[in-house]
Design brief:
The protein is an alpha+beta fold. It contains two helices and six strands; from the N terminus they run H-E-E-E-E-E-E-H. A six-stranded antiparallel β-barrel has the order 1-2-3-6-5-4.
Length: 116
Amino acid sequence: MVYQEQNQASCTLSDRRAEPRIKAGHSVLLKTPHAHPMEAWLLNVSSTGALARVPERISVGERVRIEAEGILLFGTVSRCETVDRANQVGIAFAVPLEQLHDLQVLNSALLEPENA
């Protein structure tokens, strides 16, 4: 019964998303402070979070680091559930993706050598 209540809550939350999710279909490396790095499959992404399939359960509230070629994201596990006999984790990003672009522009400007 507890599982059904949690599952219903997950469905309700996903129906109230404020922004669209983009299908990803991308392999990433997921790191947590309390487990070995694991290969994960990124299912979808929005500007504030992601959904990934992982080989083992990760505790809600666990900090994660997502790495792939040209990608480094930080977040917190907001949910972990079994779907079709696989573990899926919802990850809330520490910094929304639209703000990452602004940070990248600022970093580029600060790192460029001054024209003398």
